[in-house]
From TrEMBL:
Residues 504-525 are annotated as: Disordered. PANTHER family: GLUTAMINE-DEPENDENT NAD(+) SYNTHETASE (PTHR23090:SF9), NH 3 /GLUTAMINE-DEPENDENT NAD + SYNTHETASE (PTHR23090). PROSITE patterns: CN_HYDROLASE. InterPro entries: C-N_Hydrolase (IPR003010), C-N_Hydrolase_sf (IPR036526), Gln-dep_NAD_synthase (IPR014445), NAD/GMP_synthase (IPR022310), NAD_synthase (IPR003694), Rossmann-like_a/b/a_fold (IPR014729). It comes from Leptocylindrus danicus. This is NAD(+) synthase (glutamine-hydrolyzing).
Length: 661
């Protein structure tokens, strides 16, 4: 067995792999490279191990000993400690690396392969991120394709109590070929994959690579890797009739499937461990909240099929029986919709500004997925709050379209959004009681990663929730996921939602609109002053490419060649002005499923200050200089005689921009 545990060795705490055979510790192997980027802060807890350098006078083939606690190990006083590999009595060699070491430039498996190690294990804790599995697989396949050998990869599965979901995908790889691959998304706590391998294939493969032989000879002569010899243990067995596992095709999910399955498994793990009775979702009929509903439906489908496959005594069935208070009854749901009727509540919180089309989509979607659905009108609450304000101040705010100021307009939109949050928590706490059940519901939010980056949501509105399954997914991926779910689950209304124009529906209808039948003309992209596609560019350049305003302008002027330098400058300036103005919202953002590498989540991933100079004085001045240089270079502008767009930052300091789904 190869498993991980923290080990305190000579006053330093190491993250270690522990190799055990027949109740005896063979080797404690400390991790040499720690994960300290993105979601990880491993050096807060552990010290990276540094192996003593080899020299002619310092033969380190013999191991350092680690004293074991006698109360835990009465029959073993000490165990070898260090970055050695093991040679067994039949000549088979085995070494291990851990998680981050696979991703480093001087990966441990390279040294082990050059020293002739046959089998390399990796016990990993690698989280899911959209399109990330391909990169992980390429590293593992490349490791054995270059150097030969067997690579055993086991990865954590499930929600580990935070924003990340660890997506399994255990693998057995030999000489660049996949012999076994585990499921990426599933509800089983443990999955085992096996393969039967002929180790002579490894030796033959390595012998066929002359360049590998040259480097292996140099490595073992200049700095041979230390190893342990365990002559009494044999790993291989000679059996001519054993069926050797043949290579198989790599299985990868589409991004649309990942958007469904990853958050769905995360939600189930969170629900069964939280003590809650289910989920509550404000379902507006828009793309974001409908995407969350589709993810919960995916969760209910996974639960239903798992119970159907393994029966009422399976772990998933027992978890569902505990959630639904049906322990001991052998409860078996007849459909995903029956699962949803027990654990999922949706609510359309309409107002006089809501259209009948969004109400209709919300109602039809709830019926299709089987959620317990309510329709609530919040006008009475809005009116009460505004009357309270009028009594206190003698003033009554109005929308811009009715003669009010921009500040009045935003305040009127925001109060609707915030009252939806208050209503959601009231209903989540009391609805189990209303339905004659016990417990409480977890409130689900539905703000996507692009809106979080731009700050396009009201602080403490319905985006404020207990969990947000889509907070790390961009709008483009969400729309594609809706279309996938519409086809996968035969839910036609999701296709309708995906093709509808995103709108907050927080302003009154225009005089030429028919609020009985037409869609609202208030659109998200018009409110934001930028498109969702542009936001994805900004997000990737800001986080993944580490761009500030000037560098982003330089890159986008190459990418967006259909725009003039003035237009690109205006867009970059507007984004950074709004981003910095709204960055404070990241301090209170709802814990969201981590799915995108450019997530602006301030709590764990995107650690930055939340106060910037919104004018970006030096950076914006430098952009202006670059625009002038570009104009001079082409004799008056790339885009001909078109008028230059305004490139001044917005004069308004109102940061509480409205958006609710």
């Amino acid at each position: 067995c190869d498993f991980g545990m923290p080990v305190l060795h000579k006053s330093a705490r190491y993250n270690c792999r522990v190799l055990v055979y027949n109740r005896k510790i063979l080797l404690i192997r400390p991790k040499t490279a720690l994960a300290d980027s993105g979601n990880y802060r491993e050096s807060r807890w552990f010290t990276a191990y540094r192996r003593p350098l080899f020299s002619a006078t310092n033969n380190i083939s013999s191991c350092v000993s680690h004293l074991l606690p006698p109360d835990l190990f009465p029959d073993q006083r000490e165990a070898p400690f260090g970055s050695q590999f093991i040679q067994f009595g039949d000549g088979v060699t085995l070494g291990c690396e851990s998680c981050e070491e696979l991703w480093t430039p001087q990966a441990s498996h390279i040294e082990m392969a050059l020293n002739g190690v046959d089998i390399i294990t990796n016990g990993s804790g690698s989280h899911h991120e959209l399109r990330k599995l391909q990169s992980r697989l390429e590293l593992i396949l490349g490791a054995t394709r270059k150097c030969g050998g067997v690579y055993l990869y086991a990865n954590q599965r499930g929600c580990d109590g935070g924003r990340m979901y660890f997506d399994g995908s255990a693998m057995i790889v030999c000489n660049g070929n996949i012999l076994g691959q585990g499921v990426q998304f599933g509800l089983d706590d443990v999955e085992v994959i096996t393969a039967c391998i002929d180790l002579e294939d490894v030796r033959s493969y390595r012998a066929s690579l002359p360049s590998l032989g040259i480097q292996a000879a140099n490595a073992t002569q200049d700095a041979p890797m230390p190893y342990l010899t365990l002559s009494q243990v044999k790993m291989a067995h000679a059996d001519f009739f054993s069926v050797i596992t043949q290579p198989r095709e790599l299985r990868l999910h589409s991004p649309e499937e990942e958007c469904c399955l990853g958050p769905a498994c995360w939600l189930w793990d969170f629900l069964r461990r939280s003590g809650a009775s289910g989920f509550f979702l404000p379902l507006s009929g828009g793309a974001d909240s409908s995407a969350v509903a589709a993810i919960v439906h995916t969760m209910c489908t996974l639960v239903y099929h798992q119970i159907k496959l393994h029966g009422p005594t399976s772990q998933v069935a027992q978890d569902l029986q505990r959630l639904t208070h049906t322990q001991g009854t052998g409860f078996m749901p007849s459909s995903p919709q029956e699962v949803a009727s027990h654990v999922f509540t949706t609510c359309f919180m309409g107002s006089s500004n809501s259209s009948t089309s969004t109400n209709s989509r919300s109602r039809r979607l709830a019926a299709a997925i089987g959620s317990y659905h309510l329709t609530v009108n919040i006008d009475l609450m809005v009116s009460a709050v505004l009357k309270t304000f009028a009594i206190a101040t003698g003033k009554f705010p109005n929308y811009e379209s009715k003669g009010g100021t921009r500040g009045e307009d935003l305040a009127l939109q925001n109060i609707q959004a915030r009252l939806r949050m208050v209503t959601a928590y009231l209903f989540a706490q009391l609805l189990p009681w209303v339905r004659g059940r016990s417990g409480f519901l977890l409130v689900l939010g539905s703000a996507n990663v692009d809106e979080a980056l731009r700050g396009y949501f009201t602080k403490y509105d319905a985006s404020s929730a207990d969990l947000n399954p889509i907070g790390g997914i961009n709008k483009g991926d969400l729309k594609r996921m809706l279309l996938y779910c519409a086809d996968k689950f035969d839910i036609a209304v999701l296709d309708e939602v995906a093709n509808a124009e995103p709108t907050a529906e927080l302003r009154p209808f225009d005089s030429n609109e028919n609020d009985e039948n037409d869609y609202h003309t208030q659109t998200d992209e018009e409110d934001m002053g930028m498109t969702y596609a542009e936001l994805s560019y900004y997000g990737r350049l800001r986080k993944i490419s580490r761009c500030g305003p000037v560098t982003m302008f330089k890159k986008l002027i190459q990418i967006w060649q259909h725009l003039t330098p003035e237009e690109v400058a205006a867009k970059v300036k507007k984004f950074f002005a709004m981003y910095s103005m709204n960055r404070h919202k990241m301090c209170t953002i709802t814990p969201a499923y981590h799915a995108e590498a450019y997530s602006p989540d301030d709590n764990r991933f995107d650690l930055r200050q939340f106060l910037y100079n919104v004018r970006w004085t030096w950076q914006f001045r430098r952009i202006d200089e670059l625009v002038k240089n570009a104009q001079a270079h082409v004799g008056g502008g790339v885009g001909g005689d078109s008028a230059a767009a305004s490139i001044c930052p917005p004069s308004s300091n109102v940061s509480d921009h409205t958006k609710v789904e």
